[in-house]
Amino acid sequence: MNFILEGGPIFMVPLVLLLIVIVLLFVKGLKNNTDKNQKLINSLALFAFVFGVLGFVIGLLGALEDIAAMRGDIAPQVLAGGFKVGLLAPTFGMVIFLLGKLFTIILTWIKK
């Protein structure tokens, strides 16, 4: 759970909430499988991916602004650490997207 705080709670907490909603919709879909449920899972999964990428872009813009303001050499370790932290939100968004797609495939497969 440390990656949630490390990746920035502004983007990671909504992603966790989206994951919970997608899992709940999947469980609901196992009981009552409808097209609306599958479309909602797909839409939320795609939103999670794009939201994670948005977090990276906003973080990268802030980091580039800070680097430009320093007007000096920046250590490669600091830059690499910043990229690692910045990539946590899009990576988590991709995992949520893939889970949402997997859930949709399962629901499509078991649909009567």
TrEMBL record:
InterPro entries in the cross-refs: MotA_ExbB_proton_chnl
UniProt key word Transmembrane helix: yes
One term under GO cellular component: plasma membrane
MotA/TolQ/ExbB proton channel domain: residues covered: 32-96
Origin: domain of life: Bacteria
Predominant location category: membrane
Location of the protein in the cell: Cell membrane; Membrane
Topology term for the membrane: Multi-pass membrane protein
Assigned keywords, A-Z: Cell membrane, Membrane, Protein transport, Transmembrane, Transmembrane helix, Transport
Record-level GO BP terms: protein transport
TM annotation in the entry: 12-30, 42-64, 87-110
Family: Belongs to the exbB/tolQ family.
Name of the molecule in the record: MotA/TolQ/ExbB proton channel domain-containing protein
Species whose genome carries this gene: Polaribacter glomeratus
Lineage of source species: Bacteria, Pseudomonadati, Bacteroidota, Flavobacteriia, Flavobacteriales
